[in-house]
């Protein structure tokens, strides 16, 4: 689980933004619909390029589950000008490195390179978007790689299976139902035609936002974008995901038999997407519950009652309504029911009495330092700008986030707690060695 | 939500413990800093960096797992225990006051030393520094808090054994270094941690946390003159310990005399996780930079020989890499990968084959040029933030290198030629008498293990490593 960005910050004097101001971010959109955000920053002789494609496992359906993630792999396996292996070899020869990740919502490609190599990076990225090769031999070998990735996650993470089960249970109709990596049987069986269709639909310039930051000049980025990206034709926009999860009308419980020294408990509450007005209050609520050892859940469950060895919560950005997750590792001397009850008690307290003004201020202060940390690196800047552009609809929202968080009141926190933290709206899962 | 990372999963990081890479086209120089000593002997590094209103603090103290003697886990718990209360602050006060200003404070032990790091906003300097100062110089180790931590630690130690990736390093170190100090696991085991008391922590602190053997580095948005005044006050009550600075160096480790395999049985394993290798290098090895370049090629990046063969060509694994893990007075080298139970034999075979190929065929001009460009190009982001720079300064103190490491990095990379690379391979990469650690389902993979050397079998559920 990895938070993609600072969730936000608080309103402050403009001095906070001394280094990066909204007007420092330049944008342009090519005729084919590909949008660019450019931030010049000469603090190190390096630059990056982040390409956010608006495609993730939410765009899939049974039969091709995991295809978004598989594509993320195939994008490195050869295109017209740069054949198999040449994408990475060329990039590394030029001093660059790269990575990519897939979520339920997006697929993001990240390139980090000496600024002087920018043209090569454009050449590489454009070639694979314009003319990717889908070689059956490569597809076959990559199935093995992805199977190993799926398996190593299951082998090494005590939470992976349980969180997959929670999503599968909480979402009965919406495509957040299946895991990002996909079902093994789909990994083994999707066809070349499935891949070709997917590529044409989603890897279109009009479905992509590109962020470039670092020791570059806007004029150079524009020139290279015109040269390499502009000739790639736009495609019909992808069909919108019309699936909507019906309101949950009853608590759901699932059990997982898994070798563990002590049980793990996971709760998921349906909550809205990033563009919803309640996003900021819920994000603060998550931190009130679990950010730092002075947080509500840590203080009560881990420190005072000592019934859990770890608690955390997670509320991440998403396009569609998602889950607010609460994790607890049960102490040897306790039972999962004790942990569940104690979490409920803490939530009920907030529903009834709200949070203290000092607690709220604490989280706002934490959000601010998180912002500073993002702005420390060119990669933090690129990732944050792209994330706000994609999830919140406008990169400028990154600069508005301080005000948005600062507007949240004690009453707002109490209101969202009462609105979303209801029994009927949740799914609870327990993983343990021996089931009763 | 769930993120699947195609390439980096912690295994595929380049080369060496310190972030290595090299200077790009423009020569990258370490920014100016000041170094001095307080009357109590504490070494101080100060580096002003005004890009963002943050300050990073880093400290290094000669108190690592190598100082645990038979109380494995003691350095680690003592480091954690620094935050359980001090002369003026309770644990709850430390946490609430630091959380309130959004400050981070980490205190942890490594194999050789204890590292403290903190980050806070410039405006909160007078709230954060006094707490950090007392955490270092006046911890009280209250028994109530220690007992709670011990219980949590015991639970975590058990959880760790569920994840081969989290424990294979401890098995490896013990297998290679044996019963001498570098073989100590940092975490300890349920049996060793179970016996520890708050009094052990106090005694360990008194015996090892000496200002005269330690250093702090502060980098970020502050004024050096004012900072010096603050630090003088902050550490005025931390007295010279008078502890004789013991050589923390364990004796040199003898090279293995035969091929050996440690097979750790995990009954429910769906895959086998490996380390393959032998002895490596010390951090002060004069060939450090050259070794990093060669290892980048062999197993330190996506197109490396290992990842190319095991992942890209054959689809046997999600990732394969190699690493030198240098310490002050010793070090190991290992190849690491993982694969499904049923593909264990071909994966092991190929990993060894790629190592043999490195010795037999060496590397070519084009690959060497690529590796040199790569380490230089990836270098600057390793020293971009105040936290990275503060960390570098304390590393310089500990390992005894200076800014020439940064400032001459590009030149040192550039001067490596094919003959030099060939010599590096012959000198530093193990060729025979390979050592193997495998965590997996013994019933299925033991016959494979036996082909590679004398097998010792352990159960993952057994105490320790």
Shape of chain A: globular
Distance between the termini of chain A: 29 Å
Q: What summary fits the major beta sheet of chain B?
A: 6 strands, mixed
- Count the DSSP helices of chain B: 17
Extended strand count of chain A: 11
Count of runs of 4 or more consecutive helical residues of chain A = 15
Distance from N terminus to C terminus of chain B (CA atoms, Å) equals 34 Å
Helix-strand category of chain A: alpha+beta
User: What is the overall silhouette of chain B?
Assistant: globular
Strand-residue proportion of chain A: 15-25%
Number of strands of chain B: 13
Nearest-integer average pLDDT of chain B: 92
Helix coverage percent of chain B = 40-55%
List unreliable stretches of 5+ residues of chain A.
1-18
Radius of gyration of chain B: 23 Å
Write the layout of secondary structure elements.
The complex is a heterodimer of chains A (436) and B (465).
Chain A: E1 25-29, E2 35-40, E3 46-53, H1 67-74, H2 86-93, E4 97-102, E5 107-114, H3 118-130, H4 136-156, H5 160-170, H6 184-189, H7 192-202, E6 208-214, H8 218-229, E7 252-257, E8 264-271, H9 279-290, H10 296-304, E9 308-314, E10 322-330, H11 336-353, H12 357-375, H13 378-391, H14 397-407, H15 410-420, E11 426-432
Parallel strand pairs in A: 2-6, 7-11
Antiparallel strand pairs in A: 1-2, 3-5, 3-6, 4-5, 8-10, 8-11, 9-10
Helix pairs in contact in A: 3-8, 9-15, 10-11, 11-15
Chain B: E1 4-5, E2 34-37, E3 43-48, E4 54-61, H1 74-81, H2 91-100, E5 104-109, E6 114-121, H3 125-137, H4 143-160, H5 164-177, H6 190-194, H7 198-208, E7 215-220, H8 224-234, E8 260-265, E9 271-279, H9 288-299, H10 305-313, E10 320-326, E11 331-340, H11 344-361, H12 365-377, H13 386-399, H14 404-407, H15 409-414, H16 418-428, E12 435-440, H17 442-450, E13 454-459
Parallel strand pairs in B: 3-7, 8-12, 8-13
Antiparallel strand pairs in B: 2-3, 4-6, 4-7, 5-6, 9-11, 9-12, 10-11
Helix pairs in contact in B: 1-7, 9-12, 9-16, 10-11
